[in-house]
Amino acid sequence: MNLPTPATRIAALQAQLRQAEVAAWIIPSADPHQSEYVAEHWQERAWLSGFSGSAGTLVVTQTEAGLWTDPRYHLRGESELAGSGIVLHRAGLSGVPSYAEWLAANLNDGDRLGFNAERLSIREVERVKRAFGSQKVELYTCSDLAGSLWSERPPLPAVPLRLYAESSAGEGRKQKLARIRGEMAQAGVDGYLLTALDEIAWTFNIRGRDVAYNPVVIAYAYISLHETHIFVHPDKVDPASRAALTADGISLLDYSAIAPFWNTLPPDSRVLIDPEKTSYHFLASAPEGCHLQRAQSIAARLKAVKNPAEVEGFRRAHLRDGVALVRWLIWLEEAVRSESHTEISLGEKLTELRSQGERYRGESFGTITGYGPNSAVGHYSPRPETTPTVRPAGLLLCDSGSQYEDGTTDITRTLALGPPSDEARQVYTTVLKCHIHLATARFPQGTTGSQLDALAREFLWREGWNCRHGIGHGVGHFLNVHEGPQRFSTDNRVAFVPGMVTSNEPGVYFAGKFGVRLENLLLCVADSSTEFGEFYRFETLGLCPFDPQLVESSRLDPGEIGWLNNYHRRVYDSLAQFLNPSERVWLGNATRSI
């Protein structure tokens, strides 16, 4: 079938909907593992719509089509959806219903609502059901109408997995499995289904290149109290890796074997699943009598607390990252004067410098370089056809990170490319105060992400401003740059414990003018024991100077000035040994005391 344009693809899907008597079809930006980044094989939403943004949900009815995406992609959506017949729904704006609410308003009682049950999580399907309230719709999941149209679908990635050294992981597979089984016993389950790719990579000390930015392997895993199975394409496992995994008591089955394995579980099985990460398919196809116990994934909780080897790996990775960042900042001063660079070329240079570091394995996410008004666009993504030429004036926001064999980095700096305005200095210093307030927090055991999130917003609130995103997210160890369960967010109830690594990235954005975000990674560490219990604090991992041009010292109190001077002293002392004489001079000036 020749379907050369989004309009012809949508029309073909609508014909299938009419034939199957399905009122609407949901196509999310998701894979069967609920991954943040999706392999090309599963990108049919992009193929159907022509919309290239990383986030969005396409809904097609027999007569209409709409795409919901967040503010990052509203402008791109306008451009890329033109002529397709697909209506852009600007999610995140006041008065714009969610796709589920829109479906509830446009479908009738008795209509059939279809989707690929492998692509929506159990929790997401439940959210859709709640939007319908008492209205009755039939869920149609027995075929993949949208995917069946994609005759030239790319194959699944075929890159072999590799074993991750225990010296870097800090714990062997057998030890991790023993800990997981201990948690399973406490939870009263005899089985545990793992579907999230980073959890599988962590549990079995394997890494891969199947997904952009995240060094993971496409696989499933099932752990019982006595057996362990990994479901992965056999061509991805070389003989040495197979022998090592088998020696640890792990059975290797084909990736496609997960369905028949799941369908034949004993009917009295008690299996732990995470409804946020498990596809609805597993709920719909579970054998009768099999009890699915919903809980947060065991591996997610365990891997969030880094062991000593992982912590040291983070520190080494940030040393290399800091050296590359300083060299980029030095290069940047001359580069912007030439007025021959764009946001994209600036990001490419930073990647080039990082790639020269030992154990570098790629970016941890796509570098965000927003110049001038673009710095105010949340999670802005520069595009060749629209990126401006960067000049020696205004602000540049750069949010970037790397994957190293021994750690993952994520850091943001906002920089003045020319003499900054008083307003820019005021805003920058206010955000810096928020950053310092969280970096210097001392808090009792049991303190949650929502409490610490509020702590970091105080100085923004005093100005009548707010940060339009969470203050920080968990970070994996040579794994996903965004991981849970902890984060600094208004709705997070997870208590922080020593070993957790989380970003500290307050920001504020003024549409059409500029934005400021300042980010380092924080390691939660033990602080002290008092008659009131255990207290914790944070160690800052990122090593890169804050822009002294933008710091208005009169707005900082003595404690904040002391923290900034001590931090800059540590940046210099840590990085100077890896720099040449002229670079050390530059860094000394950038980290001078105020």
Structural commentary:
The chain is an alpha+beta fold and 594 residues long. It folds into three domains: 6-149, Creatinase/prolidase N-terminal domain (Creatine Amidinohydrolase, Chain A, domain 1); 162-303, Creatine Amidinohydrolase, Chain A, domain 1; 308-590, Creatinase/methionine aminopeptidase superfamily (Creatine Amidinohydrolase). Helices cover 35% and strands 21% of the residues. The strands form nine sheets. The protein has a six-stranded mixed β-sheet. The protein has a six-stranded mixed β-sheet with strand order 12-11-10-8-13-14. α4 (99-106) crosses α5 and α15 runs antiparallel to α16 (449-462).
Unreliable parts: none
Structural class: alpha+beta
Count the beta strands: 30
Global outline: globular
What CATH architecture of the largest domain do you see?
A: Alpha-Beta Complex
How many whole angstroms does the radius of gyration measure?
25 Å
- Give the count of helical stretches: 18
Oligomeric composition of the shown chains = single chain
Which bin fits the share of residues in helices? 25-40%
Distance separating the two termini: 68 Å
Furnish the topology, listing elements before pairings:
Blueprint: H1 6-20, E1 24-27, H2 44-49, E2 57-61, E3 65-69, H3 74-80, E4 87-90, H4 99-106, E5 112-115, H5 122-132, E6 138-140, E7 162-163, H6 166-169, H7 173-187, E8 191-194, H8 197-204, E9 206-207, E10 220-224, E11 228-231, H9 239-247, E12 250-253, H10 258-263, E13 270-273, H11 280-284, E14 291-294, H12 298-304, H13 308-338, E15 341-342, H14 343-355, E16 360-363, E17 368-371, E18 389-390, E19 395-400, E20 402-404, E21 407-408, E22 411-416, H15 422-439, E23 442-444, H16 449-462, E24 472-474, E25 483-488, E26 501-504, E27 507-510, E28 514-517, E29 520-530, E30 533-540, H17 558-575, H18 581-590
Parallel strand pairs: 1-5, 3-4, 5-6, 8-13, 11-12, 13-14
Antiparallel strand pairs: 1-2, 2-3, 7-9, 8-10, 10-11, 15-18, 16-20, 17-19, 19-22, 20-21, 23-30, 24-25, 26-29, 27-28, 29-30
Helix pairs in contact: 4-5, 13-14, 15-16
